[in-house]
Amino acid sequence: MFARPCTAPVCLVSALVFVACGEDASNELSPSPTTDNNPNQDADAGPPNNDGAPPFGELPVFIQPTRLCVDPLPGQPEGQSPNGEVCTWQAIAGATEEGRSFEDYASCDVVRTQRPYFPMPSHDAYPDGDPRMEDPAYVAELAWAEGQIRATGCACCHSDNAPLGPVRWTIDAPGNWLGTFSDRDVAALSGLIDTSMFGRFAPADNNGFHRVDSVPSTDPDRIRAFFANELAHRGLGPEDFADAPPTGVPLLEQAAYEAGECEDGEGITPQGTLLWSGGPARYLYVMTPQAQNPTIPPNFDLPEGTLWRIDVPSNGVPVLPGDVTYGQLPAGLIQKHPASPSEPPVALISGQTYKLYVTRDVFQPITRCLFRAP
Ligand code: HEC
User: CA 92, 94, 99: angle at the middle one, nearest 5?
Assistant: First the structure.
């Protein structure tokens, strides 16, 4: 199932909101049917449907993560960087310093270009209130978890500050905000559902926040235990999510996609001109045929085996097939590999096979194929 290409515009819309594409997508991904054998009629293990996702043409251009360093807000403690600034990766998986709010130190507008943002209704697990809110130890742990999430890019969409409203769950809900999490949301962040394809920074580069199958946290075991505790409180456990589909299925599909031979003139001309199909492009990769397919930053977009990668900056004009010659950086573009902008990529060897991977924007492939160097 992971080999199906996904390039038609309608497919892209689905891919962007991270649901599977193809006619049978609704069957594949609707919440697992509950049966009489399943005591947890509302374990709701399936991923969310994406009613309300913006149409493809209205999605913003993906802005690449940058690390922003600024002075602490008035009245706040010195930052941990050598000159006292607070440094924060402006990314979904980024985190500012513990105890601070991500939104005070990074742009959520940038983060909200990095995956589709649109409001989605919240779950309501505790409509009559939650007696645990009388327990000071519980309330303290809840406040710790809230502070951790508020320090991360997750809060850009999963808090009431999101301009059109929160997506599914929000740390700003009155009473126990955990009630806005569906059972599947809780299971995902307790580590039972694989969310690794959404990416992570090295903790040393992310103010000590580790992301291990949950929200990035300075104490990943504690945050997963916090969610596991909530799951147990709801009478659910690992067995209820054994068959739950992972998150980010289209990303997994893109990663596993096996490129076929280039067709219809795709590939490279004897003069070195790169040709692809699908129209204007922002990201071009020439890779070894075995290289992993690139997906999203920070850790899945420059796979080993990348020989050359060039990007159109988010405020630049996409390039067209025929505009690019291998190894020659067109004006206005950025060479991401080799890392030094003046270092040319290795020369292609005549007769050898390479992979051409071209995307309209991050995680929107338009050409993925193998060509033989002329
Ligand atoms: C740019 C907006 C945005 C940001 C930032 C964001 N999310 Fe979400 N999140 C969404 C949307 C939209 C959905 C629902 C659609 C979907 O799952 O594809 C969602 C759904 C989820 C779900 C349910 C997924 C499932 O398959 O059931 C979890 C869990 C989640 N987010 C966790 C996180 C975590 C953890 C972070 C931070 C690392 C984060 N989100 C950051 C927009 C965002």
Answer: 120
> What contacts 45, CB < 8 A, 6 or more positions away?
31, 32, 183, 184, 187, 240, 241, 243, 244
Cis preceding linkage at 298, omega within 30: yes
For residues 33 and 26, the answer to whether their CB atoms sit within 8 Å is no
> Which ligand 1 atom is nearest residue 245's CA?
26
Nearest CA to ligand 1 atom 35: 215
What is the number of the ligand 1 atom nearest to the C-alpha of 215? 35
Tens digits of per-residue pLDDT, 284-306?
999 999 999 999 999 999 999 99
The pLDDT > 70 percentage for the chain reads 86
- What mean pLDDT is reported for the chain? 88
- Pocket, ligand 1, Cβ cutoff 6 A: 17-18, 47-48, 50, 92-93, 111-112, 114-117, 120, 152-154, 156-158, 167-168, 184-185, 188-189, 215-216, 247
Per-residue pLDDT of 155-170, as tens digits, reads: 999 999 999 999 999 9
Query: What is the CA(132)–ligand 1 centre distance, in A?
Result: 26
96-111 tens-digit pLDDT: 999 999 999 999 999 9
Using the structure block, give the residue that is written with the tokens 């995680």.
363
